[in-house]
TrEMBL record:
InterPro entries reported in the protein's UniProt record: AlpA, DNA-bd_dom_put_sf, Prophage_regulatory_activator
Organism the protein comes from: Palleronia caenipelagi
Xref: Pfam families: Phage_AlpA
Region (Disordered): 1-20
Name this polypeptide is given: AlpA family transcriptional regulator
Transmembrane segments: none
Highest rank taxon of the organism: Bacteria
Amino acid sequence: MSKQATNQAERILRRPEVESQTGLSRSTLYAMIAEGTFPRPVKLGKRAVGWHQSQISDWLNSRVTNIA
């Protein structure tokens, strides 16, 4: 599968799923976004945002790498 096809098929995670995967609360997520230490969400609509699954996976992997 080409990179372009992979990007088109990439899943967008909504906030509750991001919270579940990372173990972070909503307020912590937004504080880390403001600090520049967590991926910024993409705007899905007037009041809806989501995160690219690959960015969340990369962020989690970087955290594990930093600990090890």
